[in-house]
């Protein structure tokens, strides 16, 4: 295992992002269609927040199985904007940050994804799943 491997080696660079003007129904569709749990929120090419699937679950019945829940979700989703629900106080890393540094940061914090930002532009996202897959590949 290399000690100075940059996060750019394992991050997702083809980032699925939401615009701050998108709605929460669009967010849910992206979460489900791409089987992901975190989506950066951008204004232009600047990251302004991070939305997690857990954020949606907190305000809705997104996991509910009956048809009634779909109607309730629509009403609830229309009550909030992405900007109201997303995490705004972001911690980000650069693409040259080492995998070890990212692992240490994620181990200390209560979140599971970090935006990767170079020169104030979103260039990727790294998640705890990326780190686990990296470790698995080492064995």
TrEMBL record:
It comes from the Bacteria. The keyword Membrane does not apply. Keywords: CBS domain. InterPro entries: CBS_dom (IPR000644), CBS_dom_sf (IPR046342), Diverse_CBS-Domain (IPR051257). Residues 11-68, 86-139 form the CBS domain. The keyword Nucleotide-binding does not apply. This is CBS domain-containing protein. It comes from Olleya namhaensis.
